[in-house]
Design a protein that fits this description.
With 139 residues, the protein is mostly helical. 69% of the residues lie in helices and 0% in strands. It contains 6 helices and no strands.
Length: 139
């Protein structure tokens, strides 16, 4: 009798790609809610422009707006992506993916796209010697 061969997994490595994808989708969903729920509604804009720190909703709107004024969110995403690239830390790359994805939706497209690209390269890199998962990570 012929020996049965094991059935190969249909998509090898899909679990490894699932975490960054979930992180990106979650960050995009939160950024979408922040943009269309806090930043762009005309009634909320009129109310919060008069008193930006009055009430929880206006405070959240002001903090959201301050995150992308002068491309702050994009700069933060790019800084984390550069750190992830230099140190080869996948956890930092995931953080850069999330921050860069949010920056793409919150008006910092150039820096956000660069951060997402660098972070995706770190996440896609096969296992190499070095502190891939953080300082002092066991192999």
């Amino acid at each position: 009798m012929a020996q049965a061969r094991p059935i190969p997994e249909p998509m090898p490595g899909w679990r490894a790609a699932a975490w960054p994808l979930c992180i990106v989708l979650s960050a995009l969903a939160l950024a979408h809610l922040a943009r269309h729920g806090l930043v762009e509604p005309p009634q909320l804009t009129a109310t919060c422009d008069a008193a930006p720190w009055q009430g929880l909703l206006c405070s959240l709107r002001t903090l959201t707006v301050q995150a992308f004024v002068q491309q702050r969110l994009g700069v933060a995403a790019l800084a984390v992506a550069l750190l992830a690239t230099a140190m080869r830390w996948r956890w930092a790359a995931w953080l850069a993916l999330a921050t860069g994805s949010a920056a793409l939706l919150l008006y910092a497209t150039g820096l956000g796209a660069s951060a997402v690209l660098l972070a995706a390269l770190v996440c896609a890199r096969p296992g190499q010697p070095g502190p891939v998962d953080g300082p002092g990570a066991a192999r």
